[in-house]
Structures are given as C-alpha cells and as structure tokens.
Amino acid sequence: MSIDIKSMYLTELADWLQSVGQPSFRAKQVFGWMHQKYVASVDMMTNLPKQLREQIHELSFTVIEEETRMTSKKDGTIKFLFRLQDGQMIETVFMRYSYGNSICISSQAGCRMGCSFCASTIGGLVRNLTASEMLEQVYAVMRATGERISNIVVMGTGEPLDNYDNLIRFVKLVSDENGYNISQRNITVSSCGIVPRIYDLAKEKLTITFALSLHAPSDEERKELMPIAHRYTLQETIEACKAYFRETGRRITFEYSLVKGKNDSIDHANRLADLLRGVNCHVNLIPVNPIDERSYEKSDENSVQKFKLALEKKSINGTIRRSVGSDIDAACGQLRRKYAAQSDVHR
Questions:
Q1: How much is the pTM?
Q2: Helices 234-248 and 195-203, axial angle in degrees (round to 10)
Q3: Strand-strand pairing, 281-287 and 252-258
Q4: Coil, strand or helix: which one is 331?
Q5: How far apart are CA 202 and CA 210, in angstroms?
Q6: Quick check: is 159 catalytic?
Q7: Per-residue pLDDT tens for 248-289?
Q8: Which of 36, 127, 132, 153 has CA 20 to 30 A from 273's CA?
Q9: Strand-strand pairing, 209-213 and 125-128
C-alpha cells in the first residue's frame, strides 16, 4: 500500500525524506505546502527540487474532488458532495456564522451505528476515512470558497470514535503549529457513545470539545432511537463523560435531537435534567431534520422553547441549535443517499 504523505506527522515526514536521500529540513516545506497552503497538486510545490517532487508523486497524495454542491437560499450554507479517490462519496457542510466559518466533516463513508433518525447509517458502513481524507474536506472547502475555516465539527457521516486512530491523527495534524494551526478548542468531536473510547479520548489530553449524542433520558427510550444503547447503559455513558471532564477539565456538550411526540415533552426535559444533575455540561437542543426514509417529525418551536425552559428551571444550561441549510438536504447523509439513488437509476 502506498504511503499516505498527507496523513504523516512532521517527524514522520522528516524520517521519510531522510530515507529517500533528501535533507530533513525539507519536511517543513512539504508540510507547509500541504497544511498551510493546502495545495491540490504536488506540482504546485514550486520551491522543491524536481527529484523530490517526483519522489512524492510516487506516494499517495490525497485530494478529493467536488462532485456537486448545494447552496441554501435561506442562509448561504453550502453542502458539498465530494468524491474520494476510490469513488466513495462523502458530505461536508460549510456554514457562515457571525463568529466565523464552521465546517462539519465526515469521518467515515457510511456508518454502522444505526441511529433511527439519521440518513447516514442507511446502507451501513463502507469504510473509515483516513486522516488525510478528513483534512482534505477542510482544505477542499477553503479552496472552493476562498474563505478560512475557524471551527471544525466532526459530526457528519460516520461515528468518529469508531475511526479512533485516524480521528486522533486528524486532530493533531489540523492543529499542528507548523500546519493549519487551528486551536483544538475550536474542534468539536461528536459521538453516539462508544464508552471505552471516551476513556481513551480523555487520556489523549486534547483540548477539543467532546459532544455526546444523548437524545433520550432513559435506557429504554434511547434504545428505540440508538442501537448503541443496547451495548452501553446511560449510567455507564454518563460516568465516562464525567471521567472525561475530570481528566481534561473540558465541559461536556450533550446533544439532544427533539423528535415530535417521541422525546420532546416536559416530562422528558425534567428526567433529562435529573439524569445530568452534577455533570459539568451544556445541552444542545436540535430539532430533528426529517428524512425521507423515516417518519419522524421535527418538534414545533413552542415545544422546543418549553423543553429548554424546563431544563433551565432545574439549572441545566441549554441552547437551541439554529437550523441551517434546511432547503438543501443538510441533514447528514441525505445528499449522498439521493446521489446514490440517482446513479442507480441511470445505470
């Protein structure tokens, strides 16, 4: 298998250069071309000797190709469908906010977690993304828009902790001071809750924000929405989150997708507040994006506001996520699914 140069740490790159007879000082030059200037071709690395460019050509130099994009007429959100070098498709969403530009990237092609309200998991997991394929989503969007990304959310297709090693490599690479140099505090990793990996993540001593997809205040209700709940109880999951906070000092974000008539009552809010009592956390309320393959409906605005107020009465801080891209299939997996269906029809 060819060496994936864009997934190399700077030290690994220096070692490789020395192994092919090149001076190690070239490592910062190559690293800078990839992660500061995010070039789409080795030939654009103009200050490198021709021999070195030829040596890099022999490696795997990951570049992803834009297949299509959809731009929201409501808020300017852009959803990209990218083609990977093996033909797999992934989705990436670019969002403009008053505090800067955010990007939501995918960590896998497909997903095996099976959450019932999510289009990403329909069809299952195809494969993990490499660190370079995760990085390329950030770089390709900046090449396309000409705008810098200030916040990264690993919340697109896939379960990040199910692709643990590549996730950690991605976080360390994108935050490297010799590369893109984004603050780890501006990176959020969202997980449905693979408990052993939460403990592993805590030991990495990163300063990222960890977000747990909760979506129900009891084990039985959570099992209806998230198969992961059959493996790990809420008690086990919350204990892992507490351990994460103790180890890192970073407040946990709990994501709660509100489904009309399913988990959005005042009783649900009160039980959720009781569950989270004593946890240093923040609750992100997300009116669910309806998808064609499921019958779930988004909670109405009044129910969402009442849910938030009920949490606040029990001293749980909550915010309502602003819905973006609702007119462009911005929910995870929808554009990829529709493209695949159309491709099947035209074969």
A1: 0.92
A2: 0
A3: parallel
A4: coil
A5: 9
A6: no
A7: 999 999 999 999 999 999 999 999 999 999 999 999 999 887
A8: 153
A9: unpaired
